[in-house]
Amino acid sequence: MLLSDFNDDWYVVRERPTPDNGGKPAGPFRLPRDEMIGETRSPKVPAAHNNGYYPGGTYRYTKTFDALSSWKGRQVIVQFESIYHRSKVFLNGALIGGRPSGYITVHVDLAPYLKYDQENIMEVVADNFAQPNSRWYTGSGIYRPVHLLIGGSISIKPFGLQIHTKSLNGSNALIGMTIKTKSLSAEPVDAIVEVEFHLVQGDVAGPLASSTTFRARLGSEAKIDQNFEIDNVAPWSCNSPSLYQVTVRLKTLQGELLDTAVDRIGIRTVELTPERGLCINGERVLLRGACVHHDNGILGAVTLPEAEDRRVQILQEAGFNAIRSAHNSVSIATLNACDKYGMLMMDEHTDVWFVSKGAYDYHLEFEEWWERDLEAMVDKDYNHPSVIMYSIGNEIMDSATPWGIKHAKIMADACKALDPYRYTTMGINGILNMMFPADKKKPINDISILDNVSDKIPGAMMIKFLNLVVGALTGLMAHLSTFNAVDRKTKDVFETLDVAGYNYLVERYEMDMKRYPKRMIVGSETGAMAGVTTWPLVEKSPQLLGDFVWTGWDYLGEASIAGARYDRLPSMGHPFPAHTAGEPFVDITGYIQPQCEHSKTAWHLRKGRPYLAVRPLPLPDRPLAANIWRPTDAVRSWSWDHCEGKRSEVVVYSDSHKVSLVLNGKVIGTQPAGQAHQHICRFKTRYAPGVLEAIAYDDQGRETGRDRMQSADTSSLAVRLSPEKLELKADGDDLLYIRVALVDTAGEVRPMQKANISVSVSGPATLLGFGNADPFNPRGYHEGTRYLSG
Question: Per the database entry, which stretches of residues form a coiled coil (predicted)?
């Protein structure tokens, strides 16, 4: 079945806690859309800092459309990629589908309820009123795209075309294909199946690479399995992400077209062995991973292809080659971008099983829905070469119990049955498992509590204390993670998985590789410095695949969990108006921060080239509070108002033998650099406007590279707008990101300058969001005025 756009002409009204616009629907508008990002934030909302102080609610969408008489006798399905959450879909007043999970595709059969050649009314209720139901910002409503699928009386099911590489020998590949079909008739039908492979060139399908035709017998529910070979293959890899467009046509024996399915694939193999590690097409790959939440910063949770494409490109520029979706099934747009750019993906199913982390989270529906939701995730991911692992959960406390271990095996086996060509993992926090009682009985959850949700909902979360301790008491947590009790409470669940996912357990890497020489380990979630400190061990240890830092891209919610803190006690999140987590790798606007450059240096991606950053003036005398997620507050600036002569601390990241710091032509000092010093030098000096340079040298005294910063001239500042591209597609979905900066006449940016900036848009375009990366932003992102800072 082919997808057609079903995103236009929708209306929405907020039903709880109070209707907006006097109960009148807003619209018409085009989906996808996040209702939460435009709501008024408040320190009194039940989920508090977890979702960035947004309230949430219940939203009813409506769309009126005509059903053509030509649709009679055909299969008509609407595909909602995701709705947050606890959705119900109605057609002409009849409840016809829905799903509790806010991250899984919803397919609804429309045909039995359609009124042909007349008006039909579709309604979708997204119920995000019961809070807290998540530990991060979720967004609300139909935040991912909607499509209509129309097939013949015999059709290929949604996600019913599944293709995998069985073997790859040189330029020859053996391809396995499964086609799942559905017929409206119980009578079997003989059909011709035509398959074509075209090598994708740019964004279009290029020349024919291979084709095959065969006969199949199709019943009411049929599954066709077929193998075939392709010669002169262009394999997919991180460095060369070649893609093929596959077109499958079902025809009658007389040649009448029954249905068509089209998808894109990559031909590649993935293997895991303790002797060679993770190999793609026989070549070892080390994971430089980023955990990434699903929101798009100032856009909220809305999923648009351009935003996801841009994010993957920026993450790749920042040095990452892998993403872990945290902690939910990732969007199709993100998978497409990862396929396109060669970014690997660990797709994660859920943050919760039977034991809750919030009063109204997915634990209420998990037992009834996990199997269908897991299958839907695998079906969505199956053809994407970027996906190499499925994670069945994150920091699941249940895994410390006998019944939880049993369920882990059931879920891992279910993954392998659905897709035997990828590997299973799970992010396990050993400290959490050690704390959780092994004799705790499996909870019996009562979904009826959702029928009695009061306006005042408890905001406590079971896991927040651990996050506080992990984030702030890093030395203590490192010590606790080496306890034998951690091994006792994790070893059995790790045996159910292909890859043991270690959350904040880097101190266990070496001891566990010796204790379990066949265990494959990945740092499924690690602190900001792990990519620096553990990389030499990753390079020499095939058992250790790499790590996924928390987080590669800053996100809404868990307000300022990683924000820079001075002279205050640690806490789990900042009070209102804290907004974003404040992570130090890539901020919510897409700006690559100094911590990325530190990791890139350790990953050998800045060979010989130093990188300069400066602790904000006048803060060098104030110690940065310990935080596993933010080891530095250094920024890329040498422009500071009224700071002449004040003490400053300059940070240089370098893999060279030594580094000299030069200010206005005068050598401030020289320090050793490289791996033995964690690729970092710290210089103390007095601030003076001008030119600051770092010059790196090898062990023979030869210069390997230099970096410089120059102070901006504050007497001549002007606003500079820098569009990230020059052409837009008039498709209703394209985006234009425009960077706004204050610069002097020479083009030097004044990054720390505060200024009120107002913007407006005229013509056939809409301002979707405007903001900066300040984690303490008191406003939302829908106003046209903003401080230019952060």
Answer: none
At which of 123, 151, 179 does a domain end?
151
Q: Do the Cβ atoms of 197 and 210 come closer than 8 Å?
A: yes
Measured in degrees and rounded to the nearest 5, phi and psi for residue 136 equal -150, 175
Nearest to 56, CA basis, from 97, 92, 102: 102
Residue 305 domain flag: yes
Q: In sequence order, what are the beta bridge partners of 722?
A: 739
We report the CATH number of the domain holding residue 255 as 2.60.40.10
Segment 595-610, tens digit of pLDDT: 999 999 999 999 999 9
What is the pLDDT confidence band of residue 646, given thresholds at 50, 70 and 90?
very high
Of 433 and 621, the one with more pLDDT: 433
| Neighbouring residues of 558: CB distance < 8 A, sequence distance ≥ 6 | 49, 50, 135, 136, 573, 581
Q: Is the pLDDT of residue 576 over 80?
A: yes
405 and 541 share one domain: yes
In a domain, 757, yes or no: yes
What is the spatial distance between Cα 83 and Cα 102, in angstroms, rounded to a whole number?
5
Can you tell me the distance from the alpha carbon of 564 to that of 551, in angstroms, rounded to the nearest whole number?
Answer: 15
Cβ 50 vs Cβ 461: under 8 Å:
yes
Which CATH number does the domain housing residue 544 bear?
3.20.20.80
Q: How far is Cα 537 from Cα 539, in angstroms, rounded to an integer?
A: 5
Q: In what order do the strands lie in the sheet with 154-169?
A: 154-169, 172-183, 221-230
Residue 616 lies in a domain: no
pLDDT band at 574 (very low <50, low <70, confident <90, very high): confident
Closest CA to 333 of 583, 201, 147: 147
Mean pLDDT estimate for the chain: 92
Q: Which two tokens stand for residue 189?
A: 């039908």
Q: What is the pLDDT of residue 779?
A: 72
Q: Write out pLDDT tens, residues 374-429.
A: 999 999 999 999 999 999 999 999 999 999 999 999 999 999 999 999 999 999 99
Whether 582 and 684 map to the same domain: the answer is no
In a domain, 272, yes or no: no
Task: Judge whether 673 and 681 are in contact, CB under 8 Å.
Answer: yes
State the Cα torsion 523-524-527-529 to the nearest 10°: 40
Per-residue H/E/C for 651-697: EEECCCCEEEEEECCEEEEEEECCHHHCCEEEEEEECCCCEEEEEEE
The predicted model gives 464-491 an average pLDDT of 78
Whether residue 299 is found in the same domain as residue 260: no
- The domain boundary residue, chosen from 652, 687, 710: 710
Return the CA Rg of the chain.
Answer: 27
Amino acid at 142: I
* pLDDT attached to residue 570: 55
The answer to whether residues 147 and 158 belong to one domain is no
pLDDT in tens, 72-118: 999 999 999 999 999 999 999 999 999 999 999 999 999 999 999 99
Dihedral Cα 148, 153, 159, 164, nearest 10 deg = -150
Got the DSSP string for 90-150? EETTEEEEEES-SSS-EEEE-GGG--BTSEEEEEEEEE--SS---SS----BS-S-EEEEE
**Domain match, 586 and 538 both:** yes
Question: What is the sign, positive or negative, of the torsion defined by CA atoms of 662, 663, 667, 672?
Answer: negative
For residue 682 the two structure tokens come to: 């710290």
| Per-residue model confidence (pLDDT) at position 790 | 42
Q: Which range of residues forms the domain containing residue 60?
A: 2-151
Do 6 and 94 fall within a single domain?
yes
Most confident of 38-52, 381-395, 628-642: 381-395
Q: Work out how many domains the chain is built from and give that number.
A: 5
Q: Are residues 260 and 344 in the same domain?
A: no
Residues in the chain, how many?
790
For the chain, percent of residues with pLDDT exceeding 70:
95
Neighbours of 44 (CB within 10 A): 11
Q: What is the dihedral of CA 680, 684, 686, 688, to 10 degrees?
A: -10
**Identity of the amino acid at 268:** R
